[in-house]
Design goal:
Layout (H helix, E strand, L loop, with lengths): L2 E6 L6 H13 L4 E8 L14 E6 L6 H9 L3 H28 L4 E4 L2 H10 L5 E6 L7 H11 L4 E4 L2 H10 L6 E4 L18 E5 L8 H11 L7 E5 L5 H10 L6 E5 L3 H9 L3 E3 L9 H8 L4 E4 L3 H6 L6 E4 L4 H13 L1 H14 L5 H12 L3
Parallel strand pairs: 1-2, 1-4, 2-3, 4-5, 5-6, 6-7, 8-9, 8-11, 9-10, 11-12, 12-13
Helix pairs in contact: 2-3, 3-4, 4-5, 7-12, 10-13
Length: 378
């Protein structure tokens, strides 16, 4: 049995971490899978991991201390800040040393990197006998420096896996002279739900990290306008992050606490149950490389609305067929589409049915074959 190692920064909450868990759960049916994880943020991974997958934590006694540095600086505690900066230097040293040591010592037949700095170390120190794969989830957003960094980091790898067709087309063109070959493999719906949403409850839902790029303040503003004529509709937001306090203040200020619920981080079963009793999925991200939350919502038969600025959404949503894409981050147009779906229940159900059908190409049975083919190439 071949051994597959996946290099990860941590196993906490996040889209990349969720994708790592889903991939590991799929691959362990055929391979011996190990995740080499730099930091142990929690007692167990945030997302449910198959018991056959091993995790090896590399830095056990230290965690990133950005928050501590920020607090020391904001409170003008000079000596505390100096102490935290020294600690941060040691943490970064350990992150580099332990991951390079792992890359050098692992007997894995296939090594999959999930971070640009790991890509570079894998290319420099990985065994010539192993298949070395970079796995890029983030969109460059026309940031030439970011894209150049990814290209340089992956130059010595065998393959670079991209989660969207758009990214694959871009990097294939930019890496023609590299030995590293670009491959398109989308993210996976680990379990395709048997039950689908009835789309009859007056609920909107959104899942994601509460950070600026996810645009949740925009979502609350749109929902606030929606409630002027639709006071009986509710909004559920699952996730947590640095903007939670700001969102809570907006909710309180606009008297939305009876209609908006911030659920915090939740497990997959909790989210699945919430999706099953929702009628419209709303995404307001400024950027999104793939949008795994979209395909999960659509697998439940829930039609989705997103701004076209979320590049990954454009690959998943066919506007007017399985959901809606709104151009130019136009709040008024976004609001109108929600209102249209609220008024037209039959059409809402038609979009939901098509949404579920359209994401079957992301099921584990389909996607795992693409990974199997890549892993067995050498």
């Amino acid at each position: 049995m071949k051994k597959v190692s996946i290099l990860s920064l941590h196993m906490g909450y996040g889209g990349i971490e969720k994708s790592i868990v889903s991939l590991a759960n799929v691959l362990c049916d055929k391979y011996d899978v190990e995740i080499a994880c730099t930091y142990k943020l929690y007692d167990k991974p945030a997302f449910e991991l198959d018991s056959r997958v091993k995790i090896k934590y590399l830095v056990e006694d230290y965690l990133p201390n950005r928050k501590e540095i920020s607090e020391a600086l904001s409170n003008k505690k000079v000596f505390r800040a100096i102490k935290e900066f020294i600690k941060a230097s040691k943490i970064l040293y350990l992150r580099r040393k332990t991951m390079i040591d792992y890359i050098k010592s692992t007997k894995a037949d296939v090594i999959i990197s999930t971070k640009d700095i790991f890509d570079r170390w894998l290319g420099d120190y990985g065994s010539s006998k192993a298949i070395k794969i970079g796995w890029e989830h983030n969109h460059h957003h026309n940031n030439k420096q970011y894209a150049l960094n990814i290209i340089k980091s992956c130059w010595k790898l065998d393959y670079l896996v991209l989660v969207s067709k758009d990214l694959n087309k871009f990097y294939t063109k930019e890496m023609l002279k590299s030995r590293c070959k670009c491959v398109y493999i989308p993210n996976v719906i680990e379990k395709f739900p048997a039950r689908i949403a009835k789309l009859e409850e007056k609920r909107l839902v959104s899942v994601g990290r509460l950070s600026p790029e996810k645009g949740y303040l925009d979502l609350l503003k749109i929902f606030n306008s929606l409630t002027e004529k639709n006071k009986d509709w509710n909004l559920d937001i699952v996730g947590d992050g640095i903007e939670r306090e700001k969102l809570e203040k907006y909710i309180d200020k606009n008297n939305l606490s009876d209609r908006v619920k911030l659920h915090g981080f939740q497990n997959k079963d909790y989210i699945d149950k919430l999706l099953n009793k929702s009628s419209i999925y709303v995404m307001t991200s400024h950027t999104e490389s793939f949008g795994i939350v979209l395909i999960e919502a659509m697998s439940h038969g829930v039609p989705c609305i997103a701004f076209s600025s979320a590049e990954g959404a454009k690959e998943i949503i066919v506007s007017g067929k399985n959901g809606y894409l709104i151009k130019n981050r136009n709040h008024g147009a976004y609001l109108k589409k929600i209102e249209d779906l609220i008024k037209k229940e039959d059409f809402r159900k038609k979009l939901g049915k098509e949404a579920r059908q359209s994401v079957k190409k992301y099921t584990s049975d389909v996607v795992k074959e693409k990974w199997y083919n890549l892993i067995e190439k050498k």
